[in-house]
Specification:
Helices cover about 35% and strands about 15% of the residues. It is of the alpha+beta class. The strands form four sheets. A seven-stranded antiparallel beta sheet has the order 3-2-1-14-13-12-11, with helices on both faces. Strands 5-8-4-6 form a four-stranded mixed beta sheet. It is globular.
Length: about 400
């Protein structure tokens, strides 16, 4: 019989900290903060069922001086997509939806303007052809679920669905989230809370925060180079991530924090991210709770067939809702490791969560300074993840 894990169980009974590894990770993040490379960040990691790292450092709110602790919450941008994707896979696992069924089977309006053959698989693999946001989108519009879904359903694709791939930075969330709602009947935020987070004992993942947790949220800040890069986007990339809505200033707004924005507006802590991916790293079962099968996880990790991103013109290595580890020159996310075994999702500015089934390892990292890093090996997430991998490999 499958049982749910209580919050107290997830926080204590599986806390088998690795003192040496904890110290090594703490030293890395303390150094990052002391150097000014980071302001505040958290790291959590599981090996199997066990939470082996639970570390934090720095300042959560620069205006007040409030320090980061283990309960601090961060808006983690596209790290949210991993949770959204797992919700879709849970429904597929239960036989509620078919990956190769047209989205219009569940959401008839989506068939407009040549999208009748666009499938759930296309939605998960960024192949729909609707990466662009609605014209004149505003932060206020983004907080209106029905308005965003109606605009996306009515949009004309910029390529024939299934023929090309390009990162659907914001629209991925509404497309996949509305599929969940149409199939299940519950809003995505409720489904994620009740069918993903609650069974695993995850308390601190939010698609729209309640007012009482607002004091725990760390405001984001963009460094100048990161902000300049966002403002210099042109062409389709600028439509995909419009500067008037894709900024720390917008994400910090109270109305945006309280809205369900599943492409990049999830608010969470590192413990929540790591526990979600611990389930996936362990074959879909954590502490006796089985949410997906090992066969489903293999689907998650299966790369889409098109390796060049139409938005940015660079190699792209994506599975079914998740980025894949590997060499960055080949489109992989090196933070997850270069072997290609790991999968997960990073967020704008440097947050990340991933599962590495080969090590039964999961890692979550959240932070509040959005930085542009030219060399991926210098990113905070890479340095932390590599510290963890090296320790585990040496101990094996």
């Amino acid at each position: 019989m499958i049982r749910a894990v209580t919050e107290s169980q997830s926080a204590t009974s599986n806390n088998r900290m690795n003192p040496k590894l904890q110290q090594q990770v703490q030293q890395v993040i303390d150094t990052l903060v002391a150097s000014g490379e980071e302001v505040g960040l958290q790291v959590a990691a599981y090996v199997g069922n066990d939470l082996v790292v639970d570390a934090w450092a720095g300042i959560a709110d620069e205006a007040t001086g409030r320090k980061v602790d283990g309960d601090t919450l961060f808006t983690s941008w596209s790290t949210t997509k991993g949770f959204v994707s797992t919700c879709v896979h849970i429904l597929a696992e239960r036989g509620r939806l078919d990956y190769d069924a047209p989205i219009a089977t569940y959401w008839p309006e989506f068939a407009a303007h040549g999208k009748a053959k666009a499938t759930v698989r296309h939605a998960l693999t960024h192949m729909i052809g609707v990466p662009h946001m609605p014209d004149q989108v505003t932060p206020e519009m983004m907080t209106n679920w029905d308005a965003m879904c109606a605009a996306i359903a009515a949009a004309e694709p910029v390529w024939v669905p299934g023929t090309k791939a390009g990162y659907h930075a914001w629209t991925f969330g509404w497309i996949n989230g509305e599929i969940v709602r149409r199939v299940d009947g519950r809003p995505l935020a409720q489904f994620a809370r009740e069918e993903l987070c609650r069974p695993l004992g995850i308390r601190d993942f939010y698609l729209g925060i309640p007012g009482e947790v607002e004091p725990r949220v760390a405001p984001l800040r963009q460094d100048p180079a990161h902000l300049d890069g966002a403002l210099q986007l042109t062409g389709l990339a600028k439509q995909v991530m419009p500067p008037q809505v894709t900024s720390a200033a917008v994400i910090n707004r109270p109305d945006v924090r309280r809205a369900s924005i599943p492409g990049g507006g999830g608010i969470m802590n590192a413990r929540a991210i790591a526990r979600h991916y611990a389930m996936l790293a362990c074959g879909g079962t954590l502490d006796g709770v089985c949410l997906v099968s090992p066969e489903c996880i293999e689907i998650m990790r299966t790369p889409h067939p098109i390796m060049t991103d139409e938005i940015f013109g660079v190699p792209s290595r994506y599975g079914h809702g998740y980025a894949l580890g590997g060499d960055s020159a080949q489109g992989g996310d090196a933070v997850m490791g270069r072997s290609g075994a790991a999968f997960g999702h990073g967020g704008n500015g440097g947050s990340i969560g991933f599962a590495d089934p080969s090590r039964r390892l999961s890692v979550g990292l959240t932070k509040n300074l959005m930085r542009a890093v030219a060399d991926p090996s210098q990113a905070a997430a890479y340095r932390v993840a590599e510290t963890i991998r090296q320790h585990l490999d040496q101990a094996a």
